[in-house]
Amino acid sequence: MTPTLLQADSLAVMAGELAYHAATHSKPHSPQMHLVPAGSATQLFLANGSRLHSISDETAATLKQLQEQKNEAAITATLAALGLDAPPAIDDTPLKNPKTYALSLAIAQKCNMGCAYCYADQGDFGGPIKNMPLTTAKRSIDLLLADCTAGSKVQLTFLGGEPLVNRKALREATQYASEQGKLKNVQVNFSITTNGTLLKADDAAFFEQHGFAVTISLDGIGEQHDRLRPLKNGSGTYAQIIENIQPLLQMQRKMQVSARVTVTPLNMDLAQTLQEFIGMGFHSVGFSPLLRSSNGQGEMTQQDLEQMLQGMIACGLLFEQHVLAGKRFPFLNMVNALKEIAKGTHRPYPCGAGAGYMGVSADGELAACHRFVNEPAGRMGSLDNGVDHTLQNNWLATRHVHQQQPCNQCWARYLCGGGCHHEVLEKGRTACDYIRGWLHYTIQAHARITRLAPHWYK
Ligand code: SF4
Ligand code: SF4
């Protein structure tokens, strides 16, 4: 399926064909299973436990027919006869009082940029601009470490706005977390998402010292990025960011520097962007569609998402080529999807929001995640009063994927988890065809890589 070398034209043609196939063959027909034609054998994906099996043409034809007849009882019986039945890997019981293992601090609820689509209303989350005081950051860290046992790990993330607006508190909080972690024999992993415009050379040494995962928001190459991510005065930022990140890219050892691209209708050249950024030396590059913005600008329509699927598959084909040639190609979405498919990831939630992960506002209010800062729908308590377990458990009961429609009828539900809570609550489920199309393609790619380059998984 994958040729040894693809030129841009043939890459686009092949990606177009695969995207069309994925879009038309990934619709939800049965909540129990999904059939994925993949070369000489069909892959049977079982929702329960996210299990994959190669099946014969005859079995595939039988299951396809039963699926078209919507005969779920006969599908259940056929799977049992094949020895593929199993007790439910996930039941209706929601998580209860989970321990917090990750916090993101809105260390600065302000930003120097004026991105049209910003989920945080240009950094202030719809309220007055403010920095998080160091005392609030330290109290957050105390909460994070409170019940940790020796040998465990926690995650501390700095977000904004633009977190480097409040560099002093960020550094002192990092130092504090590092010291407190050592005292308790708890490993604290640090991460930051930054727009890159305020980075200074000595930030690189600081992030390297503490082993930060640094994510730089970049929305394309040159002018494409500048149109989407200007300063508040409208001037471009790309050239400055690229200059600023050079010390980080060169210094990364313990530190990992990744690029994150928010995809809007204005920056759909994904394969070109991916190759450019990987060529610059980023540890990984990932794409995420803009499904909801605070002012509606830049949101992706169904047609845009169809186009994006094609672009993602083009990137996936490039990934496959490199893997077959034994070369590293850190396309993050693909790496994550393949690992999850190989592992049989199955989860009742899309992410840790409101469970093990919470966001903290500059005022010390707890939220289900960074996007719910200042939003009543995601309130989770406060540093003053601790996690509000009534709010948290209610959230976990209502956000369980079995409670979501139409997720409980969707074959992809335990890989997807029901979609980002914030986007779903604000906009509904607008990206399901895109999600299923991408998973359909990555299951095919998994079958190819398992056959042709199994060493990649090691
Ligand atoms: S959000 Fe995910 S699980 Fe729910 S219907 Fe859409 S693709 Fe399926
Ligand atoms: S709710 Fe959405 S934005 Fe928040 S952590 Fe989950 S996926 Fe991310």
| Terminal residue distance | 23 Å
For the biggest sheet, the summary is: 10 strands, mixed
Q: Strand percentage, roughly?
A: 15-25%
**Count of DSSP helices?**
15
Uncertain spans, ≥5 residues at pLDDT below 50?
none
The tally of beta strands, per DSSP, is 15
* pLDDT averaged residue by residue: 95
Order of helices and strands: HEEEHHEEEHEHEHEHHEHEHHEEEEHHHH
3D architecture notes:
The chain has helices spanning 8-25, 57-68, 72-81, 134-145, 167-184, 201-209, 223-228, 238-251, 270-280, 302-324, 332-343, 389-399, 413-416, 421-427, 432-452; strands at 33-38, 41-46, 51-55, 102-106, 108-109, 130-131, 153-159, 187-194, 213-217, 256-263, 284-289, 357-360, 365-367, 379-382, 386-387. The chain has 458 residues and is an alpha/beta fold. It has a domain at 34-89. The strands form three sheets. A ten-stranded mixed sheet has the order 11-10-9-8-7-4-12-13-14-15. The protein has a three-stranded antiparallel sheet with strand order 1-2-3. It has a two-stranded antiparallel sheet with strand order 5-6. Helix 6 links the parallel strand 8 and strand 9 (213-217). The protein is globular, with a radius of gyration of 23 Å. Bound molecules: iron/sulfur cluster (SF4) (2 copies). One iron/sulfur cluster binds next to helix 14. Its cofactor is [4Fe-4S] cluster. GO terms for molecular function: iron-sulfur cluster binding; metal ion binding; oxidoreductase activity.
